[in-house]
Amino acid sequence: MLVLSRKKGQKIVIGNDGSIVIEIVAILRGNKARIGITAPKDIPVHREEIYNVIQREKAERAEQEKVDGMEDALVG
After folding, report:
1. How many C-beta atoms surround the C-beta of residue 19 within 10 A?
2. Are 40 and 19 in contact (CB under 8 A)?
3. Distance in angstroms (rounded) separating the CA atoms of residues 72 and 1
4. pLDDT tens-digit map of 15-32
């Protein structure tokens, strides 16, 4: 893991083409920072908890498709 310190307005550039940029938009009270992320439309950007929900739903769908396929094979 790369750990960086940044000030408001400073940016982090990800990738050789610079297509992903993270900017510190504001430093809030306490232990929070507001960040902005610029990325190509084909690269999804999610908070970790949302990403985890999406991955869990994908796994559940894949498992259900597997079960459905087995049921179809037994019936067919």
Report:
1. 13
2. yes
3. 46
4. 999 999 999 999 998 889
